[in-house]
Amino acid sequence: MSKTSPVAAPSAWGPLRIAAFRSLWLAVLASNIGTWMQTVGAQWLLVEQSGTDTLVAVVQTASTLPIVLLALPSGALADTFDRRRLLMGVQGFLVAAGIVLTVLTLAQRMPPALLLTLTFVLGAGQALTAPAWQAIIPELVPRAQLASASALGAISMNLARAVGPAVAGVLIARTGVGVVFALNTVSFAVFAVVLWRWRSPTSAGSAAPEQFAAAVRSGGRYVRHSPVVRRILLRAGLFLIPGSALWALLPLVASRRLGLGSGGYGVLLGAVGVGAVAGAILLPQLRARWSPNRLLLIAGFVFTAVLIVLALGRSEIAVVAALVPSGVAWVMVLSNINASMQLFLPGWVRARGLGVYQMVFAGAQAAGALAWGALSDAAGLVTAHLVAGALMLAGVVTLRWLPLRDVTGMNRDPAVFWPEPHVQVDPADRHGPVLITATYEVSPEREAVFVEAMEGVRRTRLRTGAVRWGLFRDGADPGRFVEAYVVPSWDEHVRQHEGRLTGSDREVEERALRLAEGTPVIRHLLSARSEG
Q: What is residue 206's DSSP assignment?
């Protein structure tokens, strides 16, 4: 709609001009290809060994469930430790697990239970990898190119879907599943080598890292008290739960409905990947033409139609033709959602917020895969796909009342604008809890607007460290309001002073201050019990 939109939407290839991003992106692409080869190999091995719909679908559950369990702790690790070293250590762990999987498979000592266990172990490594890698991206590319970097992430993931399954299908047919697992192990080693050669240009900050448990809790509080993040996660879940039916049931459509072998299954997944790559390339132009919510609406209708075709189609050509636009729709949704998360989350909690996003991403697919597999066992493939299509359509309808929030104009840069706290006693970093009060004088005609403005202040306090917050009126002086909030420790409060607040938070707080008279009186009350 805006004439300047094309200028604001850079090419999807722009971040690849940055050498550090390019080398790491290629390494992640290799790892993604290996992961998809592993998924196809595990699913096909179970198709041959068991033939039950639920067990085949559980491969996706086993690979994604660890992300549900570990994503937030993984994000806390990535926010508190050196992300490069963390990633290198995780890749070493994945190489070791991949070697065990490969050797046992080649020796034909891989029962279904052990295969699912090792798939879960590899998923745990991926759960530790994803938040750290996602949090590194804003360090590699400027903010204006984050949307393009997100599109490139979608290209990496979906090019892997195009290449990995096709290569896996050929290798399984000619050499067996063990070779596929071996190549996946090599991909982890490649990523580790690239990380070893890369040196982050950013130096560690002067502040000491947060304690792990405190970091996990503060990350959870941030998401819980951020309406923007909660809405992004809701939109992701409403798309991913029905959308997971495609990935969970596609091997059964290939083998049972279409009578295809492993190579044919690879072709079907490759069609989705080709569509996703095309969608990622077109995404800047689509984003310039349509709003994020319009993109979600169109993608949801397209994916609904694809699920109906998978339910009713009996021709390989018809299924392949439907899978290509499904890839376009998939990348349209997830690239926009991921870009919104990257743009909104401040640096201090970025990996934790992205960890929660990965948790929803994986949890929706894990739960969905299990549900669609069980429904297919009970009622058949047609019913499972039709129910998924109806659920997708219902999610699209909710866009009218629950749209994605526009975050492009928000100032998410750190804002240090609070004055230095003045205390006579020098508390220890972990001294707590700490009660902070701010006393405001408000004229009668501004009281209602002030109370409304302080609701925004409440959210900023709770997002950045407070565990309790309240606004009170002085019974003896009705024009005097006292804001009171509790922070778990002195260290947590100092972090509020030193960079947890953003430019948007400052705008919210200054709006409330303009409605008060004079400067508020701030007091820091330390726990007497801790002192004594």
A: S
